[in-house]
Each structure stands twice: as structure tokens, then as C-alpha cells.
TrEMBL record, chain A:
Organism: Esox lucius (Northern pike)
Gene, per the UniProt record: SEC24A
Ranges where the Sec23/Sec24 trunk domain occurs: 497-736
Chain ranges of the Sec23/Sec24 beta-sandwich domain: 741-825
Record's keyword annotation contains Ion transport: no
Name of the protein described by the UniProt record: SEC24 homolog A, COPII coat complex component
Keywords of the record: Cytoplasm, Cytoplasmic vesicle, Endoplasmic reticulum, ER-Golgi transport, Membrane, Metal-binding, Protein transport, Transport, Zinc
TrEMBL record, chain B:
GO cellular component, one term: membrane
Cross-referenced Pfam families: Cornichon (PF03311)
Official protein name in the record: Cornichon homolog
Transmembrane segments: 7-29, 56-75, 123-142
GO biological process: vesicle-mediated transport
SMART domains associated with the record: Cornichon
Highest taxon, organism lineage: Eukaryota
Family membership noted in the UniProt record: Belongs to the cornichon family.
Topology relative to the membrane: Multi-pass membrane protein
Key words of the record: Membrane, Transmembrane, Transmembrane helix
Location(s), subcellular: Membrane
Length: 1090, 144
């Protein structure tokens, strides 16, 4: 790089949306004149602006008081650093021949064929032997791989997703241009990323999900040269034509999400604007638009013009591209400025009743220059509670908002760039992986964005396999994608990658056989035995237990599985250590035999005791040489041998108890065993199928510290509870077939000055920033509390990097790296403007779970209430300048009290209502372990009216029309007897039918003639061939697709036993033991105005 | 000048306090190692936990000795620490073995900071009492 990486793309519209040759032309002047002979050592001037190259950009619109805005010119394109660029056009031509690889298919596009005009491609490698360098670093040694079997059609899907086509598909979703002023600012970026041109897909991974069907597939132009893996194939459509340009890459989000998922958060068009714009008539005029407090006013750029909706960005940039390069950052700033007033608009919570947006709530966008923001990690993967990081801890304390990160690091991504490289470029002092937010001082050196050390760019990194050009380190996929996966070389292995090993530990006591779960487990395993993730080394084993432990010898050559019973549970040993875990490929038949006979083997058992502890010890012994996954199915309280537990719950105290006891484990046996497991890379997943108290608080430790997952099916029974059985089946299928990573560790690094305070989730914390995860699964979420140890003065942005090193089921060592970049602010109003209410709620929930275990439940409840009181008090006293009556909150936090109230009424934290201890503990586990999106549904379910679904504003996904009804408030007042309402509570969906429900709905959707004919335990909608039925089922199906687990549908009518649990979710209403929303607001207001 | 039982108590306390000072330093170093990522929390807790009870018992032991020789003035400052030790051990996490430190929670920044602060405070206390016992011993030897 001849100029700073930062200044390049940001100053340079080309980087944002490459499109015509005009770019090349337009930008030539700024670069060429700045030729300097030889790579100059970075002068002091460079250091001043260098480390924080992005700084001026941020500063240009943030302009914290006292922040000189003069920086900006200094970092413009004419960097004095430019090494010889004069560069004959030759080098660009040299490469293809030198590599003996077929010319990039891109050659078809004319722009790429003008390397001479594009400075990056042109210069001869400085200091490198001109002719040798390129071949050496050809794609063999260092290239971006394609997915294992990059079928050309798939590739073309990724590559060719031409922006125009996507535009078309997405258009209905995008906020219409007229919304600008009031559009939820946060809603735009997803759109943006969707709309942005699809970039190269070097190693397009298609992990689990099929290629997104909604992506248009233009003719696969890139495929002709299928001989070498086409990973390097740059795009073939108009947008991608400047591959060396790096421009196409910024929209890393594109790779991450299917269009489908992306559409989720996008609000339907229209309504947001109406809602926002019109529903606050009561506000004093002073607050309506210009509510940005005075100290935020510097944000208003003099050049303020109506900001463009993001979907129009490409055009916008194309137009401006001819102008001075500085224009683009200011425009980037402009579009962000409009967000501040909206996020900080004062809302009087006591007056505003309809606070819920009509669709899903999208996370706020960090106040970053647009090019950085576009490249930033997707909020579903990596999210911060405060999208603007306070400069000092005291400022953070003043804001009274928690600072933390929420991660979903192993989320299933349909598209993920994968890089194979013999050297992975990392900072030499802090080991940060090179990422889009580092700055390139010159072509040979880059500055770490976490510790600010200046590192050398390795020779290998100079070659860009995507564009097949040399000397563009900043165009490498590592520097263009905030989420990327590396295939790790052997330095990253402490031992040879382990094979996939699965061990099933099944409870076969009388109680277990009675529930009939064995049938389901064996059946699911039989069906999915070939889709278990793994390769030819995959191993499988079975252990069953009641009062004794039964092993199964599945060795090849036996005529049938041989059961070995060990009755000495005090000192457990493995009868035949070699043949209990067998290779799945070689012994499939034997395994199938066993699975077929297992359900009947224990049909007559009268054994009621359960020696879970010894069985787990046996499992640990069996797996400790390799590591792997143990799936434990348990149906009762373990009562024999080590780890036996006693019932601690007093059912009479469920509702009345002032404080809930026994939330912490009764014994540390399971914790210690889990730590042993963790050390040997064994994870334990617990399936609890029980109707009685099982002491999940103690048992759960086995999964919690070994990074397993917990599934709980209360009152599971084959006959009596078919809904639960279906749910179990679906979950099991997902569980067996989902992606898995073995012997994983995750390290979270952050910019110097920030430090990690606490982790939440299932793992073992091995050092201050390292989590040990024997297994990692795509449904695991993590939360991290952060603190600010040193003042972040002089920093404009901070970065967080989560690196997950794991062994894939195919035995590859891989590193998945996510990097998030956030601006630093120094005023309270900016902090409030960047608050992400959902992330805050999720983090507070995790913190409250910890608090209720270490202190008490009432403590945790108080802490949550205080959190909302404190932050609103701080807002009132420190940010608001004009005091007025009422409970005032910034618009971005308007849902905060509602979510806190929802948490207080959540199963995990509620008091006064009869809640089983296990249910409560399970809810707590979920709050800590589930990714934020599902946690939010658990906390605040979504209510839709479904008897009048229309296709207006519907989504169109793979030729299905999915209606998008409005989200209703959770209040009985919103229910009407004439309607039917669907409540999506995450793991369960209720369909409430009003007594006088539209007969049309009853007949067309439910297939019953009248209301009394609605069956009591209806859990499925009949497949009727009517438009209404199709719409309803499409909508429910769409809701279900959005999560990895299977929510059961319950049709609820007035007499249903489930009506109570439906009504309990009506959190805005008063119950005997809890305040209504309005009362809660009054309580908060009283405390705030004290 | 005579070698009384009280003087013997002070001498013994002097030696034992020296040992306690080493314990405190050991703790401080151990937690620092945890904070700087040098050690695995499981190993570190395994080395620290067996030391907790001996430290408490040593302290109890010379408290009892001072009680026997009715050195109330010396006993006074030691009582709060004794009470703190009792409270600390009562409120320890659920553990099957002896000790205080749980490898799963020790890496929490609050707990780590608390343990470090505790180490420094104890070090200061033991150092002060070391010199006090030295003074006490000489005083007893001289005055009797």
C-alpha cells in the first residue's frame, strides 16, 4: 500500500462502490502526484495521523468539542508515503503468466484490464526481486480456498449476486426514501449491507444451510476456468470489476447472512415513519426534532442535508465520485448525523403508549464513517451494549449503563470467507489477527489497532489472491472482512486434530423407560446417523445406566452388540477400553443393530435408581484420550453413587417464598467433573426429560463448565405429552446434525485500555481473556462485561476481536475471527445516543442470573429495577437541559423500562407466581447461554394479530409469501374476542383464539366449524388449501425457521389449561403479584425525580 | 529479666507471623500470575486451596496462646481478623475439598481484585503485627 489503508477506502469513493472506469480516472490525480522514491520511513507527521487514520473521519462528524477538525485534510490521499508508483504498467501484466494459472475470469471485464490506470496493481514490488516474488506467492502457498466442493453454480450464486438484482428483491423492505428523517437509523445498515454489491467469495462456505434461495443467480460467468479452484475468481458483474480495488469486500455482512435472515430485522416499509413521526404529538415542539441537547450540537455538520437512505448509497457515491475525494467522508458523516437526534429524541414514557416498533427492533448503528461501518462485524454475531464507547470509566459510571459485548461466534453463516495461508498475519506483541481496522503505514508495515504496535507485512501478504495482484496488502480478504475464517497451519495444534467422537449416555431406569424417550432418541439417531458431522475417523459409543453401568462392545466382527455390565459403581472402570468407541463408518451396522434393539432391551426393567455420577465418570474415562461430545439423557434425580442428589424443592414454597433458595449447586461433583472434562476436551450436553424435580442447578454444572448445552423437557411423556415429544424430536435432529467444533478456545481481545470483567455463558475461563470450549456449537451465545481501565483519550475508535480456534468435524484446525470497531465518545449524550437497548437487556439478564445465584433473587430483581432507574436518572440530570414533568427517556432507551419489567416477570426472576425450581433454573441457563435474538423473544414475546393477515408488506422468500403483521403490545387490552393472536415466545408459540373469532378463520385456518369445536390440545395447524391457511402457516413456518430450535405451537382457547401461561406473558398487565407497566413506570418516575 | 510463658508466646507468634507473611506474599504472587495469564486457574486454585486452612489455623493458634497468657491488648487487634476468617470460610462456595478458591469464579475481575486486595491487606497487617510482637516480646522480657 502506498498510502494509508484508512485513508484509501474512506477517502475514496471507489472503495465504497466501485463501478465504472470513472473511478480510476477520478482518483488517479490524487495518487500519482505523490510519488516518492522508495519507501520512506514514516515521518512524525505520519505517526500523528497514522495511528488513528480513521480518526479524522470520525472526528469529522463527531467533532467532540475541542477536537480539531483540521486533521482531515492531513490524511487525504496525498500521503507523503507513497513509494514509487510511477511504476510502469508492466508489473500488472506480469503476473498472470508468471503463475501459470488460467487468467482470472475477470479478464472479461474491461476494468480489470486496465491495471496500468490503477495504481495499486501497478507498482513493482518494492525491495522484492521483481520477477521472483510473484510466483513464489502464488495461490499455492497462499490463497483463498474455496469451500471443500465449490460447485460452480454455488459460487456463481455468491459471486454474481448483482446489486441491481438484489435491489429488486429487497426493494420492498428498504425504507422508502421519504423516511429519512424519522427512519430508525439502526434499521438501515442491514439493508445497506444487503444491497451492497456482493463481493468475491473466496472460500465461500456453505456450512449447513443451503445456498440462500433468494439470491438471484445471474449466469455463472465466472466458471469457465473451473480447473483451479475458482476461489480467486473475482466477481463478474459490473460492481466487482475492480477486484484489486477491495471495494466489493466491505460488505462482509453479505457473506454472513442469508438474505433471508437479513430480512428479519428489516422493518416493513412505511409504518416506522408514520409511527415515529406521528405518534408523539404531545411533545413540546422543542423536543420534536431538535432534541439533541446542546452539547451534542457540534455534531451537526454545517453541510447538513437530508441524508440518503442507505439503500441509495451506491448511486450517491457514484455521483460524487468525480468530486474531491474528501467529499465522501463528509457525506458518510452526514447520514450518521441524522441518527443522533432520533436516538436522543426525548420520549415521555408516561404519555407514549405505543412504543413498540411494528417490526423487529434493529440494533443501532455505530457512529462510524460509512466505509468502516459497512465493513464492521454483523450485529447478530458481535454486538456491544453501547455502540459508542465512553472515554473513561467515570463517564461510564455516570451513564449507569452496563458496557459489554454479546457474541454469537459460531453462528451458522451461509457465506463466510475462508483463507488458507501458510502464515497468518498477526500482531507480534498482542497476537491480534490482522483485520479491516488496522492501519497500513505504508506498503510494508501495518499498525495494530489493539496495541498500536507497528508490524511488518510479510512478503506473502503482499500478494492478493483475490485480484491476483501484488502489492495490495490492504485488499486482502483478511483486511476486507470483519468476519473471516482461517485454516490454521500446524503451529495452532497442540496435538493432531481430534476426530469427531460422540458418546451417548442414556438413562434406562424404570422411570426413563416409562417416558418412552428411548424410542425417539434411537429413531432420531438411526435417521441421522449418516448426517452426524464428521469424516472417516468419526467414532461413536453408547453407555446406558440405571443402578449399574452398561457398556456396549460394538467391535467389528461380533455378530451382535455385546452388553457389558459394570456393577461396581464406586470405582468405575472400562471393561474393554478399545472396543467401546468404534469407528462409525466401519461399524455402522452394529450401531444400527444396537439402536434398533435398545428401546426394547429394558422394557421390563424394575430398576428405579439412577447412577448418573458414575456413568458420567465412565464417559469421561472413555473419552479422555480423544476428547469429544457426551450427550447425556437423564429422566430423574440421580440417587446412587457419587453425585447423588436429594430433592431440595418444597413445592409449597414455590409461590409464597420470599426468596428462592437452592439456585446454586448442592454439590461440586458435577463442576469438578466438568472441569476435568474441559481439560480433556470433553463436553457434556444434558437432556433432562423429567416430570419431577431433578436439581438442574446442580446437574447443569456438568454442561455449564464443559461448554455443553442444556435441554429441558418438563413432563416429557410419549403418550401424554405429544407436543413435547415433537419438540424433542426436532431439537434432537438439529442437535445431531448441526455443525460442531471440537477442542476449541475463544480469545477476546480489545484495544488497550479496555479490559474484560466477566464472561457469561457456558465455558471455563482459562485466563483473563481466554475461554476454554471443549465443544462449540452454532447455537451458543456469550456475553462479556467490559470495564475501562485506562482512559481512552486520543482514541477515536476502539476494536474488539473474538478469535475462535477450533477443530472442525472434518479434522481441520480453523480460526474464526470476528472484529468489531466502535467509536469512542466523551459526552454522556453520545453514550445515550448509542445505547443498544436489547443488548443492554440481554447483558443485564446475564448479570442478574449471576446475582441471584451468588446473592439472592430479590437482590437481582432490585438490581435490575435500579439499573433502569439509575440510567434514566442520569439521563435526566446530565443530558436533559430542559426539565419537564413525566418520565423522560431517550428514544433509543424507550423500551428499557418495558424490558426490565418483562425480565422481572420472566420465569427466571418472577416471584409470587408458582414456578418450579427447575423451570426457573432452566430459564436462567437459557438467558446466559442463548444468543441475544432468542433471549429477547424469551424476555419479551412478540404478539401478532393473525386473523386478518394480508399480503400487504409481505416478505417474499423463495417464492413463498410471508405476511408481516404488526407487533402488538403485550396487554390483554390488545386482544379482542373477535380476533386470533399469535404469541411468539421463543421456544413456544401460542395461538390464542378469541371466543367470537371470525368464523372464517376457524374454518379456513383451523379447519373447525365453530369455536367450541377447537380441540383442547391442538398443536398443529391443518394443511388446508386456503389462502388464509397458507398465509398463517407460512408466517409460523417463517418464525420457526429463524431459530435453531423448534418452538411448539399451542392453540389456546379460553378453557385451555395453557391459557394461564399465555396470559402470564402479557407483561404490561397487572397481576396479583406484579406491577402493570404503567405502575412500574410510575414507580420509576418516583425514584427518578427523587 | 526472665523468660516467661508470655515471652515464649510472643516469640512463637513472631516466628509464625513470619510464616504468615510468606503465605500472604505467596497469595499475592499467585493472584498476580492469574491476572497476567501465566497460570491456569485450576492449577493455581489447587495450590492455593490447601494453604488456606493452615494459615487460618496458625492464626487461631497464637490467638489462643495470647488468650492463655491474657495478653488482651495483643488479642484485641487480632479478633477482627479472626472473625473475618470465620466469616470468609463460612461463606465459601460449595466445595468438597478444603479451601476458598473456586477455579470457575476466580477469573471474575471482581473476585480476583478482591483476593488481591485481601492479600495486600493481610500482608500489611502481618507485617505490622510482626513488629508489634517483636516489641511485645522485648517488652515482656525486659519488664518481667
Amino acid at each position: 500500500m502506498f498510502h494509508n489503508h484508512r485513508s484509501g477506502p474512506s477517502q475514496n469513493p471507489v472503495a465504497l462502490h466501485p463501478s465504472g472506469p470513472g473511478y480510476n480516472m477520478a482518483h488517479q490525480p490524487p495518487y500519482n502526484p505523490t510519488q516518492v522514491k522508495g519507501p520512506m520511513p514514516p515521518g512524525p507527521g505520519l505517526y500523528n495521523s497514522g495511528p488513528y487514520q480513521p480518526v479524522p473521519l470520525v472526528g469529522s462528524y463527531q467533532a467532540p468539542p475541542g477536537q480539531p477538525m483540521l486533521h482531515r485534510p492531513s490524511m487525504g490521499p496525498p500521503q507523503p508515503m507513497t513509494p514509487p508508483q510511477s511504476a510502469s504498467p508492466g508489473p500488472g501484466l506480469r503476473m498472470p503468466p508468471a503463475q501459470a494459472t488460467p487468467p482470472p475470469p475477470v479478464s472479461a471485464n474491461s476494468y480489470y484490464q486496465h491495471p496500468p490506470s490503477w495504481q495499486y496493481g501497478a507498482p513493482p514490488p518494492i525491495g522484492a526481486p521483481p520477477s521472483m516474488a510473484v510466483p513464489q506467492h502464488g495461490p499455492v502457498a497462499n490463497h483463498v480456498t474455496s469451500s471443500p466442493s465449490p460447485a460452480p453454480p454455488q459460487l456463481s450464486v455468491g459471486y454474481n449476486a448483482a446489486p441491481p438484482a438484489i435491489h429488486n428483491t429487497m426493494q420492498p423492505l428498504g425504507p422508502p426514501a421519504t423516511l429519512q428523517g424519522y427512519t430508525q437509523p439502526g434499521s438501515a445498515p442491514p439493508m445497506n449491507s444487503m444491497v451492497a454489491p456482493q463481493s468475491y467469495q473466496p472460500g465461500m462456505r456453505v456450512p449447513i444451510a443451503p445456498p440462500p434461495t433468494m439470491r438471484p443467480t445471474p449466469p455463472p460467468t465466472g466458471t469457465p476456468n473451473a480447473t483451479p479452484p475458482p476461489p480467486l475468481v473475482p466477481k463478474t458483474d459490473g460492481h466487482i470489476q475492480t477486484p484489486g480495488n477491495g471495494a466489493p469486500f466491505p460488505n462482509s455482512l453479505d457473506h454472513l447472512e442469508t438474505g433471508h435472515t437479513m430480512t428479519g430485522p428489516a422493518p416493513p416499509p412505511g409504518p416506522p415513519a408514520r409511527h415515529m413521526g406521528q405518534s408523539y404529538p404531545a411533545l413540546p415542539p422543542g423536543y420534536q426534532n431538535t432534541s439533541a441537547p446542546p452539547n451534542a450540537s457540534p455534531m451537526h455538520h454545517p453541510m447538513q442535508t437530508p441524508s440518503q437512505p442507505y439503500s441509495h448509497a451506491p448511486q450517491q457515491y457514484q455521483q460524487t465520485s468525480a468530486g474531491p475525494a474528501q467529499l465522501s467522508p463528509s457525506l458518510a458523516g452526514l447520514s450518521l448525523q441524522s441518527q443522533t437526534p432520533e436516538a436522543l429524541r426525548v420520549v415521555n414514557l408516561l404519555q407514549e403508549r405505543n412504543l413498540l416498533p411494528p417490526g423487529p427492533i434493529s440494533p443501532p448503528t455505530p457512529c462510524l464513517p460509512q466505509d468502516l461501518q459497512k465493513i464492521n462485524c454483523h450485529p447478530e454475531v458481535f454486538r456491544s451494549t453501547l455502540t459508542s464507547i465512553p472515554q473513561t470509566q467515570s463517564l461510564l459510571n455516570k451513564a449507569k449503563l452496563p458496557l459489554g459485548l454479546l457474541l454469537h461466534p459460531f453462528k451458522d453463516l451461509t457465506q463466510l470467507p475462508v483463507v488458507t495461508s501458510s502464515t497468518i498475519v498477526r500482531c507480534r506483541s498482542c497476537r491480534t489477527y490482522i483485520n479491516p481496522f488496522v492501519s497500513f503505514l505504508d506498503q510494508r508495515r501495518w499498525k495494530c489497532n489493539l496495541c498500536y504496535r507497528v508490524n511488518d507485512v510479510p512478503e506473502e501478504f503482499m500478494y492478493n489472491p483475490v485480484s491476483r495482484s501484488y502489492g495490495e496488502p490492504h485488499k486482502r480478504p483478511e483486511v476486507q472482512n470483519a468476519t473471516i475464517e482461517f485454516i490454521a497451519p500446524s503451529e495452532y495444534m497442540l496435538r493432531p486434530p481430534q476426530p469427531a467422537v460422540y458418546l451417548f449416555v442414556l438413562d434406562v431406569s424404570h422411570n426413563a423407560v416409562e417416558t418412552g424417550y428411548l424410542d425417539v432418541v434411537c429413531q432420531s439417531l438411526l435417521e441421522n446417523i449418516n448426517s452426524l458431522p464428521g469424516d472417516s475417523r468419526t467414532k461413536i459409543g453408547f453407555i446406558t445406566f440405571d443402578s449399574t453401568i452398561h457398556f456396549y462392545n460394538l467391535q467389528e466382527g461380533l455378530s451382535q452388540p455385546q452388553m457389558l455390565i459394570v456393577s461396581d459403581i464406586e470405582d468405575i472402570f472400562l471393561p474393554t477400553p478399545d472396543s467401546l468407541l468404534v469407528n462409525l463408518d466401519e461399524c455402522t451396522e452394529m450401531v444400527q443393530d444396537l439402536l434398533k434393539s435398545l428401546p426394547h432391551m429394558f422394557g421390563k426393567t424394575m430398576e428405579t435408581q439412577s447412577a448418573l455420577g458414575p456413568a458420567l465418570q465412565a464417559a469421561f474415562k472413555l473419552l479422555s484420550p480423544t476428547g469429544g461430545r457426551v450427550s447425556v439423557f437423564q429422566t430423574q434425580l440421580p440417587n446412587l453413587g457419587v453425585g447423588s442428589l436429594k430433592s431440595r424443592e418444597d413445592p409449597n414454597q414455590r409461590a409464597s417464598a420470599k426468596d428462592i433458595q437452592h439456585l446454586s449447586p448442592a454439590t461440586d461433583f458435577y463442576k469438578k467433573l466438568a472441569l476435568d472434562c474441559s481439560g480433556q476436551q470433553v463436553a457434556v450436553d444434558l437432556f433432562l426429560l423429567s416430570s419431577q424435580y431433578c436439581d438442574l442447578a446442580s446437574l447443569g454444572c456438568i454442561s455449564r463448565y464443559s461448554a455443553g448445552s442444556v435441554y429441558y423437557y418438563p413432563s416429557y411423556h410419549q403418550q401424554h405429552n405429544p407436543a413435547q415429544v415433537e419438540c424433542f424430536q426436532k431439537d434432537l435432529k438439529r442437535y445431531l446434525t448441526r455443525k460442531i467444533g471440537f477442542e476449541a478456545v475463544m480469545r477476546i481481545r480489545c484495544t488497550k485500555g479496555l479490559s474484560i470483567h466477566t464472561f457469561h455463558g457456558n465455558f471455563f475461563v482459562r485466563s483473563t481473556d481466554l475461554l476454554s470450549l471443549p465443544n462449540v456449537n452454532p447455537d451458543a451465545g456469550f456475553a462479556v462485561q467490559m470495564s475501562i481501565e485506562e482512559n481512552l483519550v486520543d482514541m477515536q475508535v476502539v476494536s474488539f476481536q473474538a478469535a475462535l480456534l477450533y477443530t472442525s468435524s472434518k479434522g481441520e484446525r480453523r480460526i474464526r475471527v470476528h472484529t468489531l470497531c466502535l467509536p469512542v465518545v466523551n459526552s454522556l449524550s453520545d453514550i445515550f445516543a448509542g445505547a443498544d437497548v436489547q443488548a443492554i437487556t440481554g447483558l443485564l439478564a446475564s448479570m442478574a442470573v449471576d446475582r441471584s445465584v451468588t446473592a439472592s433473587l430479590s437482590d437481582a430483581r432490585d438490581a435490575m429495577t435500579n439499573a433502569s432507574i439509575d440510567s434514566l436518572t442520569s439521563y435526566r440530570t446530565s443530558v436533559l437541559t430542559i426539565q419537564q414533568p413525566g418520565l423522560l427517556a431517550p428514544a433509543c432507551l424507550r423500551l428499557f423500562p418495558l424490558y426490565i419489567l418483562a425480565l422481572l416477570k420472566q420465569k427466571a426472576f418472577r416471584t409470587g407466581t408458582s414456578t418450579k425450581l427447575d423451570d426457573r433454573v432452566f430459564a436462567m441457563c437459557q438467558l446466559k447461554y442463548q444468543p441475544l435474538a432468542y433471549v429477547m423473544l424469551m424476555i419479551h414475546p412478540a404478539l401478532y394479530r393473525v386473523d386478518d393477515l394480508t399480503d400487504e408488506g409481505a416478505l417474499n422468500i423463495s417464492e413463498r409469501t410471508i405476511p408481516q403483521p404488526r407487533v402488538q403490545q403485550l396487554s390483554v387490552e390488545k386482544l379482542s374476542r373477535e380476533g386470533a393472536f399469535l404469541m411468539d415466545a421463543g421456544s413456544v408459540i401460542y395461538l390464542w383464539i378469541g371466543r367470537n373469532c371470525n368464523p372464517n378463520f376457524l374454518t379456513q385456518v383451523l379447519g373447525v366449524p365453530s369455536y367450541p369445536a377447537v380441540p383442547q390440545n391442538m398443536t398443529m395447524l391443518p394443511e388446508l388449501d386456503t389462502a388464509e391457511s397458507q398465509r398463517t402457516r407460512a408466517f409460523i413456518g417463517w418464525l420457526r425457521e429463524q431459530r435453531p430450535f423448534f418452538p411448539i405451537l399451542h392453540v389456546v382457547r379460553d378453557e385451555s389449561p395453557l391459557k394461564a401461561s399465555f396470559m402470564q406473558n402479557m407483561i404490561e398487565d397487572r397481576t396479583e403479584s406484579a406491577l402493570s407497566y404503567y405502575e412500574f413506570l410510575l414507580h420509576i418516575q418516583q425514584q427518578v425525580s427523587k | 529479666m526472665a523468660f516467661t510463658f508470655a515471652a515464649f508466646c510472643y516469640m512463637l507468634a513472631l516466628l509464625l507471623t513470619a510464616a504468615l507473611i510468606f503465605f500472604a506474599i505467596w497469595h499475592i504472587i499467585a493472584f498476580d500470575e492469574l491476572k497476567t495469564d501465566y497460570k491456569n486457574p485450576i492449577d493455581q486454585c489447587n495450590t492455593l486451596n490447601p494453604l488456606v486452612l493452615p494459615e487460618y489455623l496458625i492464626h487461631v493458634f497464637f490467638c489462643v496462646m495470647f488468650l492463655c497468657v491474657a495478653e488482651w491488648l495483643t488479642l484485641g487487634p487480632n479478633m477482627p481478623l479472626l472473625a473475618y476468617h470465620v466469616w470468609r470460610y463460612m461463606s465459601r462456595p460449595v466445595m468438597s475439598g478444603p479451601g476458598l478458591y473456586d477455579p470457575t469464579t476466580i477469573m471474575n475481575a471482581d473476585i480476583l481484585a478482591y483476593c488481591q486486595k485481601e492479600g495486600w491487606c493481610k500482608l500489611a497487617f502481618y507485617l505490622l503485627s510482626f513488629f508489634y510482637y517483636l516489641y511485645g516480646m522485648i517488652y515482656v522480657l525486659v519488664s518481667s
